[in-house]
């Protein structure tokens, strides 16, 4: 009876430990077995050529691109096809929209604080060292049709923006999990926002549950192992 009670307690403890591990690792969005979910909300116009830029402990890079999102509320789940061995410290998202017929506008999804401060401001005022036209062209001609690998000039445009104007004097990135807000340029128009999160896939949950259950069982066995009797 004591062993059964212990196994029951161990099973609960194992599940709680698994949940805690999942929560603790939620910000490490590129660890193998993790799914990043980006929920775009209240988009006034359709969004295309969506590109995720992420900063890891190894530096800035782009993780996936070419996605689209219709106007309104839509949940877009992205599974990163690349295995990132370094923790992700922040991300921001680029995309394209059309605020008027025949017009292409750049959209930037950033942390809420920066997005609020960018309303009503032009791109050149906020990012004087980055060409808005170049980023629009790069997204239209390379990200939208999913043409990879990117040429060095295009890669340099994105990385240069991430490590330059986007990082200083104001850091536009946001952590995961968190909410984020969008701004369309050049006029600095509010453009919806959303929620970003990172959760383990079902297979990862199963592996963690089995692992912690095994650890709990071995701990219980050691606790209830009868003492050696000396005659």
Account of the 3D structure:
It is a single chain. With 231 residues, this protein is α+β, with helices and mostly antiparallel strands. The chain has one domain. Helix content is 35%, strand content 32%. The protein has six helices and eight strands; from the N terminus they run H-E-E-E-E-E-E-H-H-H-H-E-E-H. Strand 7 and strand 8 form a beta hairpin. Helix 1 runs antiparallel to helix 6. The protein is globular, with a radius of gyration of 23 Å. The relative contact order is 0.21. The N terminus and C terminus are likely disordered.
Task: Give the topology.
Blueprint: H1 2-24, E1 34-43, E2 47-56, E3 59-69, E4 72-78, E5 88-97, E6 105-110, H2 112-118, H3 123-126, H4 132-143, H5 152-163, E7 178-185, E8 189-200, H6 202-224
Antiparallel strand pairs: 1-4, 1-8, 2-3, 2-5, 5-6, 6-7, 7-8
């Amino acid at each position: 009876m004591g062993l059964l009670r212990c196994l029951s307690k161990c099973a609960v403890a194992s599940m709680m430990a698994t949940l805690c591990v999942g929560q603790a690792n939620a910000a490490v969005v590129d660890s193998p077995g993790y799914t990043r979910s980006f929920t775009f909300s209240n988009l006034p116009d359709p969004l295309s050529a969506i590109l995720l830029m992420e900063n890891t402990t190894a530096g800035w890079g782009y993780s996936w691109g070419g996605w689209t999102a219709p106007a309104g509320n839509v949940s877009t789940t992205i599974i990163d096809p690349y295995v990132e061995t370094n923790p992700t410290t922040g991300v921001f998202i680029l995309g394209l929209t059309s605020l008027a017929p025949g017009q292409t506008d750049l959209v930037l999804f950033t942390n809420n604080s920066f997005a609020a401060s960018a309303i009503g401001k032009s791109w050149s005022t906020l990012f004087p060292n980055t060409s808005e036209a170049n980023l629009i062209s790069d997204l239209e001609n390379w990200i939208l049709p999913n043409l990879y690998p990117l040429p060095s000039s295009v890669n340099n445009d994105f990385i240069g923006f991430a490590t330059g104007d986007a990082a200083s004097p104001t850091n536009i990135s946001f952590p995961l999990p968190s909410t984020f807000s969008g701004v369309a340029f050049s006029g600095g128009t509010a453009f919806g926002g959303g929620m970003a999160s990172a959760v383990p896939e079902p297979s990862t949950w199963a592996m963690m549950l089995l692992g912690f259950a095994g650890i709990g069982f071995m701990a219980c066995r050691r606790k209830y192992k009868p003492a050696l009797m000396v005659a």
